[in-house]
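INFO batch 0412 | record 1 of 1 | parsing
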Amino acid sequence: MLGAQLGLNDSSEPLPGRHAGEITRDYVGAFFDLHLRGIAQPLLNGPSAANPEVTPHNGS
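INFO prediction complete | emitting tokens
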């Protein structure tokens, strides 16, 4: 993610740093909203069309 901010792009990376940061921010925010605020988060219920790179696991 830092490389992208510096203008360094690595085409061998499977996911651009900026997009990886956005995905991380979305899922971490959804996790805390669900567990600390009790607000339902559909993003955590399963696959998301907005983030097909993410494979959800239920921890079992």
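INFO post-check: The chain has a mean pLDDT of 83.
INFO record closed
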